[in-house]
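Hi V.,

Quick status before I head out on leave. The structure for the redesign project is tokenized and pasted below; the design run finished overnight.
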């Protein structure tokens, strides 16, 4: 983990993320603008990357969608609704035997469940 300064911009970004559920960088930027309209898009994106690199945020790779971010760094999985794209936390981790090889070193994994969220299931009925 790289030691970085705790700037006012970083604090604004973390506060914005705490008000959102698994936001994209664009959603974080829009939320930050409500508090400080002088902050630039590049500043927000750069700080989100730094926070992710320093393991203060978790990056969620959404197939066919924008990257999303999670403040919960506790190990967990995610559910992504196939219809509306909502991302939900699932505090479940399967017991996985991680393969060993001299060709690579695995330091983690991401598990994403897909299907329909409760709201989309209700609309389908």
């Amino acid at each position: 983990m790289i030691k970085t300064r705790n700037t006012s911009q970083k604090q604004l970004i973390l506060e914005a993320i705490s008000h959102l559920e698994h936001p994209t960088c664009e959603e974080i930027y829009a939320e930050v603008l409500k508090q400080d309209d002088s902050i630039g898009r590049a500043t927000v994106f750069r700080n989100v990357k730094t926070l992710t690199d320093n393991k203060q945020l978790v990056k969620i790779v959404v197939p066919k969608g924008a990257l999303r971010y999670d403040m919960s760094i506790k190990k967990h999985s995610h559910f992504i609704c196939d219809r509306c794209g909502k991302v939900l936390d699932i505090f479940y981790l399967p017991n996985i035997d991680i393969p060993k090889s001299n060709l690579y070193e695995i330091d983690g994994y991401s598990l994403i469940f897909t299907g329909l969220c409760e709201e989309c299931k209700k609309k389908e009925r």
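Above is the designed sequence. DSSP finds four helices and five strands in the chain.

G. will cover questions while I'm gone.

Best,
W.
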